[in-house]
Amino acid sequence: MNKPTKQQPQAPIIRFMPLICVVAVLVYAALVYLLLFMPKLGKFIDGGEYDIRPLEARIVDDGQYLQELELALTDYKSINSEHKRKLNLFLPTNEDMPGLLVQLDEIARRNGLVLSSIDTLVNEKEVGPGGAKKMRVSANIGGGSYEQFVLVLNDIERLVRLADVQSISFSSGEGTYSLVLTAYFMDPNTGLQRVVEELPPQPMSL
């Protein structure tokens, strides 16, 4: 008959070996985390090398600057367009006889007179300051007093378009008046108009 084998008691260390292994793994993981990941993680926190918050703030600032730049560009285009419009009224790039006729007729009517006739002649040979061309304008105005005609002359001097009154004449008692003025316009192929258009827009009160 076989004698029962006595079971040797396990040492305490062997009994807790699974727990020790688990603890060792956790400690190892913690060390790896502290030694490998923490230094890199520190670069991503506030003030770290890879902290993206300053970059985000810069992106926001750049976006605001871009918006301001777009607004400034829009304003510049608007001002430049208005500048060119006023310049074209002051010194058109062609004779613009219809426009001048409308302005003179309006001035005459505003002062109670009638623009009865108008004649123009462009002087192709003579060139004004800055390359401006000259157009001789002869106009007959009637239907009112001399005082009214003086008001017409004053309004012509304030005309938006660049023009100079050269001579006036009138028939005593008939209420008819004649005037000769020189209106200017710019050939787009000459320098002044091109130079002015290329300059930055400046305030221009007309």
Structure commentary:
The chain starts with 11 loop residues before the first helix and ends in an 8-residue tail after the last helix. The protein contains six helices and four strands. The chain has helices at residues 12-15, 17-42, 53-90, 97-110, 146-157, 191-198; strands at 114-127, 132-142, 163-171, 176-186. It has a domain at 92-198: Ribosomal protein S6/Translation elongation factor EF1B (Alpha-Beta Plaits, 2-Layer Sandwich). It is of the alpha+beta class and 206 residues long.
Give, in order, the helices and strands.
HHHHEEHEEH
CATH topology of the domain at 92-198: Alpha-Beta Plaits
Beta-strand percentage? 15-25%
- The N- to C-terminal Cα distance equals 133 Å
Helix content: 40-55%
Q: List segments where confidence is low: pLDDT < 50 over at least 5 consecutive residues.
A: 191-206
Radius of gyration: 46 Å
Mean pLDDT across all residues, rounded?
73
Highest CATH level, the class of the domain at 92-198 = Alpha Beta
Q: Tell me, what's the shape? A: rod-shaped
Q: Superfamily at the CATH H level of the domain at 92-198?
A: Ribosomal protein S6/Translation elongation factor EF1B
Structural class: alpha+beta
Q: Specify the CATH architecture of the domain at 92-198.
A: 2-Layer Sandwich
Helix tally equals 6
Topology, number of strands: 4
Largest sheet: 4 strands, antiparallel
Strand order of the largest sheet: 1-2-4-3
